[in-house]
From TrEMBL:
Domain NadR/Ttd14 AAA: 13-176
SUPFAM superfamilies: P-loop containing nucleoside triphosphate hydrolases
InterPro entries: NadR/Ttd14_AAA_dom, P-loop_NTPase
One Pfam family cited in the UniProt record for this chain: AAA_28
Protein name per its UniProtKB record: Predicted ATPase
Top-level lineage group: Bacteria
Length: 184
């Protein structure tokens, strides 16, 4: 008797893009369809700081904010590895932290670079800037032009770490989800 074993590789997939490109909407829809998903954590970090009287932690203490994000995103990555699901979606990845620090022109420790090199995602889907759906709110301080610049930094950073970015077309939520699922 001959056995055939199939090795199932864990797919840790990141959705990235500048502010207001629809990442969280897609994550919410993927959750509704039963997929294992991890939400964006920067809003949680920002809201916690606001409760402590710091209106915009990223603007006032960008390195502290980024260190907290990096720690949280590494934890998400490690947790994703332990999930029973073979596919895990994450709203923003570890290289986003470096891209944002480069965007504001601040320096960061070598540990940020090492994290980008040590924790690799299976696939990266990038959502393009989309002015028609862009909205500012209490946690999103950037205007649309700034969001476009951030997008450029995200593209550069992910490419620098060897990622092939799969661009998700501007379309309905349903069609964007189908596009992503078709690519995995």
């Amino acid at each position: 008797m001959r056995f055939i074993f199939r090795i199932v590789q864990k797919e840790i997939i990141v959705l990235l893009g500048g502010p207001g490109t629809g990442k969280s909407t897609l994550i919410n829809e993927l959750v509704a369809r039963g997929f294992c998903c991890y939400p964006e954590i920067s809003r949680q970090v920002t809201m916690k700081a606001q409760q402590e009287g710091i209106e915009q932690l990223f603007l006032e203490q960008p390195l502290l904010f980024s260190e907290m994000l990096l720690e949280g995103r590494i934890e998400q990555y490690k947790n994703a590895l332990e999930e029973p699901d073979n596919v895990v979606f994450i709203d923003r990845g570890i290289p986003d932290v470096v891209a944002y620090m480069d965007y504001i022109g601040d320096e960061y420790p070598a540990s940020f670079v090492k994290a980008c090199e040590d924790y690799k995602y299976s696939k990266t889907f990038i959502l393009p800037p989309w002015e028609e759906i862009y909205q500012s709110d209490s946690e999103r301080y950037e205007n649309f032009d700034q969001a476009v610049k951030i997008q450029e930094h995200l593209v550069d950073t992910y490419k620098k770490y060897g990622y092939e970015l799969i661009e998700v077309p501007k379309d309905t939520v349903e069609n964007r989800i189908l596009y992503i699922l078709d690519k995995i």
